[in-house]
Amino acid sequence: MRPPEHFLCEVDAGIAILRLNRPDRKNPLTFDSYAELCDWFRNLSYDDTIKAVVFAPNGGNFSSGGDVHDIIGPLTKMTMKELLAFTRMTGDLVKAMVNCGRPIIAAVDGVCAGAGAIIAMASDLRIATDRAKTAFLFNRVGLAGCDMGACAILPRIIGQGRAAELLYLGRSMTAIEGHAWGFYNQVVTEDTLMNAAVAMAKQIAAGPNFANMMTKTMLAQEWAMSIEQAIEAEAQAQAICMQGQDFHRAYHAFVAKEKPVFEGD
Prior knowledge:
This protein has helices at 31-44, 68-75, 80-98, 115-122, 150-158, 160-169, 175-181, 193-205, 209-221, 227-242, 245-255; strands at 8-12, 15-19, 28-29, 52-56, 65-66, 104-108, 111-113, 125-129, 133-135, 172-174, 186-188.
């Protein structure tokens, strides 16, 4: 994929590290960065060279959400049709992340608010520093908490009551709370955040990547399935994976008492 214009992207050994690039303003999102991120994650499903993604902070903060001057101000002057086009576009970013076929790790430091908190929520795994403050603050700007899938996804991560508290009050969730509630997989120090996130990404990237894609697909699709439908869908997914060469590599490595080397096919 070509280098993006409105955010930073560094790819090394199959791992893409993304950063919003306005550290002087705590990395707010703009119309352009929203749209380009959405396109980037959509195209990711066609790029076999990238095995995992780390969404990283920049300048000590993850993201302050939608830019007050570049987004919030213009929204107050839009028609209903224009507003709906915008809210659908922001939701498309979450859908693109969920459907990109690659595990995403959010490495959260400092401010993680509004749409920034949604990006962390839409990631598969989340690691925070002890100074991270995560806020779904939509009601504090006069909006509903049901933004970009928050009312669907957040309760599945931390539970209905805790999600309701954050969405009604718009208060910050501390890293300690986030870890205790299951939002964060790990809490680390600021100087070890990227090492921890990249180490996790490398571990994922060294695994069976086609099977990882299937796991991500099933995690998303089974939200709307009954148990019977989910079991049947998983049976079909697993049968497909069993036809892959990584399954055979794992078997032969086990027999030879060696560590399998997966190639993603």
